[in-house]
Fold these 2 entries.
Entry 1:
Amino acid sequence: MPRPRQPRLTRQLIVETATALIDAEGLPAFSTRRLAAELGVRGPSLYNHFATKDEILDAVADAVTGAVDTSGFASRDWAAALLDWAWSYRRALTAHPNIVPYLAQGPGRRPAALAMADAVYGGLVRAGWPPARATHIGAALRYFVAGSALGSFARGFVEDPELYAAHYPHLRQAHRLAEHQQSVDEGAFALGLDALLYGLAAEYARTVGAVESGRPNG
Amino acid sequence: MPRPRQPRLTRQLIVETATALIDAEGLPAFSTRRLAAELGVRGPSLYNHFATKDEILDAVADAVTGAVDTSGFASRDWAAALLDWAWSYRRALTAHPNIVPYLAQGPGRRPAALAMADAVYGGLVRAGWPPARATHIGAALRYFVAGSALGSFARGFVEDPELYAAHYPHLRQAHRLAEHQQSVDEGAFALGLDALLYGLAAEYARTVGAVESGRPNG
DNA sequence: GTCTATAAGTGGATAGAC
DNA sequence: GTCTATCCACTTATAGAC
């Protein structure tokens, strides 16, 4: 026999609505009252499901991180797995850029972030990278992805040619960046990621590969 | 209480105190009242020097960015200049990590950020990089630096061995990251930056260098 | 240029009714 | 499990006295 009336709130519904609210209005605009209003309830009702506001934010951050795909580390060579992971990571964060400053405070105790770190670190070590190097690589990629999701580079420029021409001689075309925001940001990410992986592959060949030559990376 | 002979507030003093306050207590704790208290005045007095709270934050962000050294682009080859710039940029941001989320929203109209973009872009173009590529390189480095300053990777882990051992097999040593936070974060940055520059140098040799062989980069 | 006073509102969170 | 009622510290910003 189902319950006559379903509870209006569930943890999942709260997290989904909180995510949408943060996406739409930003982290500073996110309050328990505002969230409750969005859910059609009053503020205090949320406290039946979460103890504090930060617990809600942690759940949102964990859900965002949970969308990242690390499966490549199980089946592909380390470089291809890093590439797949970085793009998936970037997609997950750029889908919810406003939560990034909160999320980037550190993997902390959030399960999804720890599972991701575990998969990446494990995959790199399995491929032969020394543990300390694997840590550095995972962190470096995290820096790059978080930074790219944090704030669009192109978005920072305004669409007013006059503003830049006067004082910044090389930025004469900068106003055009605003038009091509997405392709500039993605192009910069692609360039940086490719260069990074190129450099890592060179170091791998120089150190790990020289020792375990002939051993497949997967 | 008699009024002081000298004005107690100046824009510079306000910005310096605001920076210290944000460093010490974080962006959410920063309020005009809290700042005024720190300066020994009442909240409204600040509005004689800045029109809004955001104007103060912009001034703080601009001061932080203003500490970045881009002089290498005038005198050194592009790769060495990028390396110097990236480290200087990182030092400036990690000295004030709590302002990074605000600062990273985009270069916007802040003079110091625009001057920095101008110097970097101009230096790269002068070295022979195609304009579109120069934009991507500057943005990619910005992503990496901002991400590295935004949140320490190592800090995210707690110093409790038991917490990770159970569920994340590869993170058995992760609690040790907390001890070596600074060296892990700097090592990850150094590795990523070197790999990135290695990859860029390869592309430069493949494209620009092939066309303008023999031309000095400076 | 700093002050008092105040506007007009939001914040997270709790107690206890139903 | 949601409600009403409530707490009160706190927010940015303005008006006008001195």
Entry 2:
Amino acid sequence: MRFEAITIKDIAKALGLSTSTVSRALRDSYEISPETKEKVLLYAKENNYRPNPIALSLKEKRSSSIGVLVCEIANSFFSQAINGIESVAQEKGYNVIIAQSKDDFEKEISSLQYLASRSVDGILFSVSSETSDFSHVQHLHQRGMNLVSFDRVVDFADIHKVSVDNYKAAYEATTHFIKNGYTKIACIANASYLSITKERVGGYTAALKDHNIAVNPDNIFFCLHGGLVYEEIADIMFQAMNTKNKPDAILATSDKITTSVLRYCQQQNIAIPKQVGLVGFSNVELTDLLAPSLTVVKQPAYEMGRIAAELLIKQIESKRQIKDFEDVVLATELHQRASSEKKAKP
Amino acid sequence: MRFEAITIKDIAKALGLSTSTVSRALRDSYEISPETKEKVLLYAKENNYRPNPIALSLKEKRSSSIGVLVCEIANSFFSQAINGIESVAQEKGYNVIIAQSKDDFEKEISSLQYLASRSVDGILFSVSSETSDFSHVQHLHQRGMNLVSFDRVVDFADIHKVSVDNYKAAYEATTHFIKNGYTKIACIANASYLSITKERVGGYTAALKDHNIAVNPDNIFFCLHGGLVYEEIADIMFQAMNTKNKPDAILATSDKITTSVLRYCQQQNIAIPKQVGLVGFSNVELTDLLAPSLTVVKQPAYEMGRIAAELLIKQIESKRQIKDFEDVVLATELHQRASSEKKAKP
DNA sequence: ATTTATGCCGGTATCGTTTGCGTAAAATAA
DNA sequence: TTATTTTACGCAAACGATACCGGCATAAAT
């Protein structure tokens, strides 16, 4: 089955005109007489004429659609970001085409290739947690594809980037722990080569140092699957909580990691914050209602999506090659709640 | 800036052949000599040739893309459903184009119109909570657009539908309340004309009747915005909890309503389940970690997305007009947890 | 009366790809 | 040798829309 739409040719035939006349009448050209225009416009309206976007795309060499590559749609942060992207795209007349990498490097490459070959005008992407080599992105970039990197940004310069101040976010979260009396603070982070991981772990260690707390490498954990696999977190937690010098606080640097830590503690009857404090990066709307209510670092996901989409569309519609690439860094919010409340003096 | 791709014409020029020969060589036609084929294939591979999908779409009158219209992407249920849709689409070589209605009737109409005019091959949609009149969908359907209705389905027959057994889900949830000793069970539902609302309220009232509990119309509430506006729920809760015969349990029939009720109770210091029991429809992954852990009706969102996408693509690729429309109804899961635990005998 | 101007419109190429048809050269058959 | 078939390719139209170029009227200017 197929959806048959009326074309300019149909209108031309019906009114005994040429396609060029109809086209011009529809675009309100001065070369067409008012009477003809009226006839054409009326007929077009009556028959619900819409220009075929595919024909237009072929002619204009642009598709008015942008691709979005994220690791997982069903994730609060990314779905909020896509929400922002969609809202901008809608305003500017662009389609949003979605692809997921599922945090798999090979799938990221194929998805990116797929989006590019589907002739999108540009791509917004956040790299997978397995990605340490950016040559596939570089290659696409060199071939002239409009790209904007967001959240988990790439490490080369000539590209727009939109991210949050991960360093500061982790620094503040760690400092918050310290101020509340925690001293043995562990950090469970994403894959080690991710930009966000480096920055967050950097902020965490800097805060410790600034408060004269020794950084213990055994208290820094990395997970390749970013918490998508529960066992990964369970193993780390088991390892962390069964050392003689076990941590009294945990900084979880992603949504999934945070949830998994919480679930592990509940299963193992580890009291939060009594036995171990918890601060997590999370964009879930429900964290204030958790038991205990969770101290979270919240990212402005919707805003990131909007800004990234605006930068991309501006770049697409720019006549000349862009030389000045923006590196937008947004602030996070630390919501202080029960899971990291002040420690009772021993 | 634009992404310049190599075309068949470029290959033809480079090798001194005609475009038709190149085209046939690439499609491995018997009319082309092995030597020519090899030359063409090699050159195409070296220069990373990809057929232009837009040109193909124009020729084939199909775009290999499907539209998805949901009320809100940043919603657990819908993002999980989109996840399922994307996975099927990816397997079958289709793009997924996203649009949001934001539960606004006018935006639903324009988004649907937009998707149709962007020449998608078909549309998966869940109507907005404001939608009581389906004529815009009917109209699109009559014009031959491939449509599959999911979750909040339409009320006419000749269309594929994928939903859950809302009646049974609400019946079971209500029965669960009754078995645990609750008798004054209120129901806070979505907009009254939504299919899912009718079915859920139907299941709720049927369960009450089957257990010889009088149905009190004052205990059934409808919200037009489906909980997207917090005040809507706050008002309903205030009204419900300030009558002389106030409910001892609440059945919340959507994700947002559930969360809002929970938040209201926390703010007003209403103890769950002591003062009022709560069961909610929710697909959030964290409900077991809430305070108290929440009894939920969970929908197979991913599965729904997959099935709906499969039906749509099958319909798109079917040669003849489809006469037999499926009405797939999936089962929900009731996760019994603390928020609805057995009432202490008074 | 002839030229010039102007209003109004049609023909055709173009975007990239596929495909039916035509045909020269080579291979086979008579 | 001539006739016929096969092989291997090119030409051109088509998909829908746009835009350049060109041309025919009628009206105004010389």
